[in-house]
Amino acid sequence: MSAALRPFDVAAIRAEFPILQQQLEGKPLVYLDNAATTQKPMAVIQAITDYYSQCNANVHRGAHQLADEATRRFELSRDKVASFIQAYDRCEVIWTSGTTEAINIVANGIAQRLKPGDEVLVTEMEHHANLVTWQQACLRSGASLKIVPIHDNGALDTEAFAALLSANTRLVALPHVSNALGTVNPIQDLTRLAKAHGALVLIDGAQGIAHGGVNVREIGCDFYAFSGHKVFGPTGVGVLWGKAEVLQDWPVWQTGGEMIAQVTYHSATWGELPNRLEAGTPNIAGVIGLAAAIDWLTQFDVSAIQAHERALLAYATTLATDFEGIQLVGTAADKIGVFSFVLQGSHPADVGFLLDKQGIAIRTGSHCAQPLMQRLGLPGTARASFSVYNTLEEVDALFRALKKTQRMLA
Ligand SMILES: Cc1ncc(COP(=O)(O)O)c(C=O)c1O
Predict the structure, then answer these.
(1) What are the residue boundaries of the Aminotransferase class V domain, all occurrences included (predicted)?
(2) What are phi and psi of 222, to 5 degrees?
(3) Three-class DSSP category at 338
(4) Mean pLDDT over residues 351-368, rounded?
(5) Structural domain 46-297, CATH architecture
(6) 91 catalytic, yes or no?
(7) Per residue in 206-223, pLDDT tens?
(8) Ligand 1 pocket member 207 (CB < 6 A)
């Protein structure tokens, strides 16, 4: 570990998150819904407050000092994201409202090029954002949507993936990490296979980004999409990273101010990357907040973050082996962050409700993955998802509360 990095001390980390200091139902809040959204450290809250209280102005177009400073912070944020994910060039970082919009920008571009006979590959574990978008693009263009199956433990069937690739595969869209199962996909190997067939590759990084260590050059993909709010940043901001050679003539997404080169009453030409894909006033405070989140996260060694999250998951999995009546959903060998389960004989919604009454925040339901739940034959699951500030004591609290919940529902 480099000397410049901050030691990974969970108590010190927790102290930086004001929301974690509160009590719910007379008990300390146990926040285990990090796959839905992560909490924000003071550094992020402060960066947003500073922007609004020191230099609120529109970017790129002002002739005054506030606008210059807002533009400086805004564009510095792009540099930070570019270096965080090892982009080749800062112009490859496109600000979006989140993963969903990033995927839609790619779909909008590719749908205009798809034709009958072309194929798009997704997996059985997709979040709706990376399924419905492609399903609709295929319906519009006449291309076929191919679904790569998973094994019963939630791991991707990589042999089926290889078999489904063909010269007709135009795009492969894969999650880095499944939000419902926690499965970490071998995206580098899968990308290599897909590229050998000449396909474009999009990685849905909504869950992957929070665990650190994303290097788009190593992955070899064409696009990587993520949301700020899943990585300690604000809601309403996200990133589409795309290779400049692919994005530079990508069909424009929205039209309006900032994205043009020349405009007449009857025609317009488009600007260069990144502006050509960023129409209108961006979420300036959100972008600055996201960069502050990245500064905050990159104080730590990535391997320490991952080791902590894997230790929480391993501990929960061990406690589950001694807990009668719990069924784990998603037990792939490589998984992170997500502990999905059903309590036998109980509906996940009831489990979530009763845990909430004991100060424990989890998520229940289909996790925006209805087809995956159908594939697993489940109405939904209860999902505890872990982050850097969670503790082994919180995992104990979850299991104590689950015992009580089980008794109440019996
Ligand atoms: C795997 C995955 N993809 C996409 C999304 C959509 O992210 P957002 O709603 O921030 O656009 C999520 C959100 O939970 C997700 O977990």
Answers:
(1) 30-398
(2) -95, -30
(3) strand
(4) 97
(5) 3-Layer(aba) Sandwich (3.40)
(6) no
(7) 999 998 899 999 999 999
(8) yes
